[in-house]
Amino acid sequence: ETDTASESSYSLGRIKKSPSSLTNLSGSSGMASLSSVSGSLMSIYSADFGNVDVKGNIQFAIDYVEQLHELHVFICQCKDLAVADVKRQRSDPYVKTYLLPEKYKLGKRKTSVKKKTFNPVYNEILRYKIEKGLLKNQSLNISVWHNDTFGRNSFLGEVELDLGTWDWNDKSNKQINWFPLKPRTSAMTFKLENRGEMKLALQYVPHPKTLSTGEVHIWVKECHDLPLLRGNRLNSFIKCTILPDTSRKSRQKTRTVAKTTNPVFNHTMVYDGFRPEDLKEACIELTVWDHNKLANHFLGGLRIGLGTGKSYGTAVDWMDSTSDETALWEKMMNSPNTWIEDTLPLRML
């Protein structure tokens, strides 16, 4: 089994240069820009810390390469971008693309970061392996971001194309064109983040003899209104990892519940060896997946911890719990030997 939204499913060594009708436009490397999705399975806008007035333009072209069964997005350049870091009067822009509404195992792609420029030149091709017929239900979202050292990235503008009405046979549509950057579409944020919810309960059980360590019990009860990815069938299961331990022995998962968007799991997972002080540094990552013979598709997840951004003194991007997730963890820490229950909205991580 492979997880289409996990870093491990992409082997960079296997990516080779391949022909593209876009490669001759500007001497592009023709290389795919694969993002490590597992590190930041987030909604398009959830990482936006800036409040920047959008300005400027982006130059790009798109084409569908029949022999490769790939959509190619050639990101050429941007000009006259807004100032993201006002204090230092600079922007470090990169471009990110999504196929929406993310119904297939595609996630995001992004370019390299260009430092200290409002007129970055990329000449990079971002590729999506997808059957052409599926594109009629997709939109292509291209957004520009300022890359901040501390992960507080700022949104600089976006362009969105409805691929359902796109004429792939029109030669002018394959040319590089300039597009004005626009402010975000709030409706799109909602559409992406509506991923259903999970009902669960947590309990911390100190060992009666020592009290110096204990067990964390995670009772996954059920999920509600999970998003349908293909047709009207959904076969879902839940995976659990206690971060920062990403080893195989740290991973547990439920059985698969077939053919429902409201699966009932009633599955309890137990993790041992927690000192009270470890609870401040750890984070439960619960992810919901649609099981498929070829690959599992990510539906949404939770990260339940204190959300401090740090673990054992090191800054980590996964310590990003929402206020509801943090509240559940704090109640569990403060009420040993008691089940603490809540229903939380699933999100991109």
Task: Give an account of the 3D structure.
With 349 residues, the protein is mainly beta. The protein folds into 2 domains: 41-190, C2 domain (Immunoglobulin-like), CATH 2.60.40.150; 196-346, C2 domain (Immunoglobulin-like), CATH 2.60.40. 6% of the residues lie in helices and 37% in strands. The protein has 2 helices and 18 strands. It has helices at residues 186-193, 323-334; strands at residues 57-65, 70-79, 93-100, 108-110, 121-129, 139-146, 154-162, 177-180, 197-206, 214-224, 236-243, 252-253, 264-274, 283-290, 297-305, 310-311, 314-315, 340-345. It is globular.
Features:
349 residues; mainly beta; Immunoglobulin-like; 2 domains; four-stranded antiparallel sheet; 2 helices; globular; SYTL1-5_C2B
Layout: helices, strands, pairs:
Layout: E1 57-65, E2 70-79, E3 93-100, E4 108-110, E5 121-129, E6 139-146, E7 154-162, E8 177-180, H1 186-193, E9 197-206, E10 214-224, E11 236-243, E12 252-253, E13 264-274, E14 283-290, E15 297-305, E16 310-311, E17 314-315, H2 323-334, E18 340-345
Antiparallel strand pairs: 1-2, 1-8, 2-5, 3-4, 3-6, 6-7, 9-10, 9-18, 10-13, 11-12, 11-14, 14-15, 16-17
Subcellular location: Cell membrane
Protein name: Synaptotagmin-like protein 2
Domain C2: 54-179, 194-319
